């Protein structure tokens, strides 16, 4: 079995899990950078999936199962948005091209995201796997995920003999999250869009590893480990509930001001507050997980609320050094906050009373 994105925390955890599975003979872990964590007995191959060399790796090891986890909103190390996009899109194209030419490949699992549905004011209350988005994402990681899934569908048509499973994960949280939304949630003050309180879903890191293992192995009787599946914990949380459970104040701003804050936060390197994330924090997104349960046969251990609680416990008080807190608050204080400081305090009191 070959796993891409092994240098990330999630990839490393999955590689270590596979080594405990008696049904897996050998694990080939691939990434463009050396991992900063242990991979057990897995064979690590330093390879960039954006390059054609990935085809040689598949051929040399006669890989039968490929688990593509190197699809992410954040680049590793010093790489920025351009690097992330190239890895997501070009890397997936190269990997699928290599899989198409490899006669040994029998199963493909791809990590995707519920970002493919976008976030818009006229969205349905709940997205199913077959619900078309009201408007396709125009940029950022959401657009990457749409393009990745398009390439995967093309691959599935060209290689109908390969079992293909696409897992659309809701926002992944836990003790070691690696996403722009997690970066946003650990800000000392959370800028929000005035008049909106979006519904959010989360999936726990532990459940992500569990469902990847199910998708990567031969299906049990009564289940089907191919197709496209939404993966999320039960229930939803409002953004206001998230802020209260983290003990972090919110600063409601008019939408143009939130966009300005996003640019400022990107400039100081605190978080990648992209336009797609602003849309999520405005309109929210909820997906159905019926197919996850009934077809894939997976039931998460953590609910959305339980996932968020574990994330909140891992943050603890005093998350950021005082100087970073001061800089962030100072920048936010310079913004044209809707209603002024007095109204902001009233808003916080109202949130706490709910």
Written description of the protein model:
The protein has 354 residues and is of the alpha/beta class. The chain contains 13 helices and 13 strands. It has helices at residues 9-18, 53-61, 81-101, 140-158, 180-185, 205-216, 239-246, 255-267, 275-283, 290-294, 304-315, 322-333, 340-353; strands at 2-4, 28-31, 43-46, 65-68, 107-113, 163-169, 171-173, 190-193, 199-200, 202-204, 227-231, 237-238, 250-253. A seven-stranded parallel beta sheet has the order 3-2-1-4-5-6-11, sandwiched between helices. A two-stranded parallel sheet has the order 7-10. Strands 8-13 form a two-stranded parallel ribbon. Helix 1 (9-18) crosses helix 6, helix 2 (53-61) crosses helix 3 and helix 3 packs parallel to helix 4. The longest helix has 21 residues, at 81-101. It is globular. The termini are far apart. Residues 318-330 and 337-354 have low confidence and may be disordered.
Helix content: 40-55%
Give the DSSP E fraction (strand runs of 2 or more residues): 5-15%
Query: Major sheet, described briefly?
Result: 7 strands, parallel
| Total helical elements | 13
End-to-end separation in angstroms reads 49 Å
Looking at how many chains there are and whether they match, the oligomeric state comes to single chain
The number of strands is 13
Instruction: Calculate Rg over CA atoms.
Output: 21 Å
Spatial strand order of the main sheet: 3-2-1-4-5-6-11
Low-confidence stretches: 318-330, 337-354
The shape, in one word, is: globular
């Amino acid at each position: 079995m070959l796993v891409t994105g092994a240098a990330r925390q999630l990839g490393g955890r999955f590689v270590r899990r596979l080594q405990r599975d008696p049904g897996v003979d050998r694990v080939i872990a691939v990434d463009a950078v050396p991992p900063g964590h242990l991979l057990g007995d897995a064979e690590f191959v330093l390879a960039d999936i954006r390059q054609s060399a990935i085809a040689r790796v598949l051929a040399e090891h006669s890989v039968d199962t490929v688990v593509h986890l190197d699809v992410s909103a954040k680049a590793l190390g010093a790489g920025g948005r351009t690097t992330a996009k190239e890895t997501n899109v070009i890397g997936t194209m190269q990997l699928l091209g290599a899989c198409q030419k490899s006669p040994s490949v029998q199963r493909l699992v791809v990590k995707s995201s519920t970002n493919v549905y976008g976030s818009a004011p006229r969205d349905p209350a709940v997205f199913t796997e077959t619900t078309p988005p009201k408007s396709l994402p125009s940029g950022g990681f959401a657009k990457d995920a749409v393009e990745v899934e398009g390439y995967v569908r093309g691959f599935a048509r060209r290689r109908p003999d390969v079992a293909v499973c696409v897992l659309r994960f809701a926002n992944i949280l836990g003790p070691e999250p690696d996403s722009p939304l997690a970066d946003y949630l650990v800000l000392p003050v959370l800028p929000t869009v005035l008049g909106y309180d979006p519904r959010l879903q989360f999936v726990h890191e532990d459940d992500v590893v569990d469902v990847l293992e199910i998708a990567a192995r031969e299906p049990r009787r009564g289940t089907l480990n191919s197709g496209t599946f939404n993966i999320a914990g039960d229930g939803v949380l409002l953004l206001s509930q998230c802020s209260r459970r983290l003990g972090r104040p919110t600063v409601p701003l008019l939408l143009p001001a939130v966009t300005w804050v996003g640019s400022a936060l990107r400039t100081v390197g605190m978080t990648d507050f992209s336009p797609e994330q602003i849309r999520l924090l405005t309109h929210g997104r909820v997906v159905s997980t019926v197919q996850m349960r009934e077809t894939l046969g997976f039931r998460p251990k953590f609910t959305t609320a339980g996932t968020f609680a574990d994330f909140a416990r891992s943050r603890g008080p005093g998350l950021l050094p005082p100087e970073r807190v001061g800089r962030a608050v100072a920048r936010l204080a310079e913004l044209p906050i809707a209603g002024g400081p007095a109204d902001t305090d009233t808003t916080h009191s109202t949130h706490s009373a709910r």
